[in-house]
Amino acid sequence: MGFPVAYTELMLPKLFLQFLSVLGFIRKLITILLCYMGLHDFFEPDIAWPDRMPEFQSVSALLIGEILPVVKFSDLAVVDPPESCAVCLYEFEGEDEIRRLTNCRHIFHRGCLDRWMGYDQRTCPLCRTPFIPHHMQAAFNHRLWAASGIPDFYYHDHE
Fold it and tell me: Where is each RING-type domain found (predicted)?
């Protein structure tokens, strides 16, 4: 018993990795040639596909979206605004539409927070403070109940 003189099973992965390395070099060479010829966007698609919207938006997400204000980042009057959105980590720019939460005062891109609410989340993604202030919760629940289409006699207790 002993070890074989050569490990042939280790040669195949090395050859495969070298082949991939050569393919990567050829791709880079073709890309440089296309850039030199002025066809640098040949590999990039021209179509910008829209983000997939959720098929179903909950009633609570729609109502919360009505309550939370949408403003442009440049119009925001904050002494020390955050540099970036905590959800997508992109920096805020002047024309970005943002939502400012009323309870915790955190701000997020409108699309980021709307997507978060689309998953039926009702709290801040950063600190988990509820979106709806405590003093507005009863009115929100009443509007939510009314929007659900369930008759009032199920909502009120019978005395």
Answer: 85-128
